[in-house]
Amino acid sequence: MGPLVRQHLDRRLNQIREVVPTLRPPRGGWIGTLRSALGMSQATFARGMGVTQQTISQLEKRETEGTVTLGALREAARALGGELVYAIVPEHPLGEMLEQRALVIARHRTASVRHTMRLENQETDVDQDARARELAKELLANPKKLW
Where are the alpha helices (DSSP H) in 66-93? Predict the structure, then answer.
């Protein structure tokens, strides 16, 4: 993935991050809450989905427990006249995550080299932090090498 695609994705993710708190499911889960708000019983909802009331009860329970499948949520959303929306939203911008990862790897590598040079009595006065930042920039040229 190139930097431009990553920047575009970061812009989209930043917009999503702003609304994430409002997207968290209510205490009873989205299915049960929406069904109740529509004044629909489990039995009525079950008939609309072509399943048993027990299946709906289990579906709502699995949603609140976090064990429901995306497919089941998608079907329930359609039956409630909506659509399932989901996203994986990293806590930090992707570029920032890559920079931090590159710096961790670079510091580890430069520390290893410094340790070896110290053992061989060849330690230099090179600023290790500056060298780590330089190596991190090199690593960022190919993010696949960061993982």
Answer: 70-79
CB-based contacts of 48, cutoff 8 Å, min separation 6:
79
Query: Model confidence at 6, in pLDDT bands (50, 70, 90)?
Result: very high
How many angstroms separate the CA atoms of 136 and 103, rounded?
A: 5
Range of the domain at 128: 94-146
Question: What does pTM read for this prediction?
Answer: 0.73
pLDDT at 113: 63
Terminal-residue alpha carbon distance, the chain: 14
Whether 118 is in a domain gets the answer yes
Q: Does residue 101 lie in a domain region?
A: yes
Helices (H), the chain: 3-23, 29-37, 42-49, 53-65, 70-79, 94-119, 128-140
Is 138 a domain residue?
Answer: yes
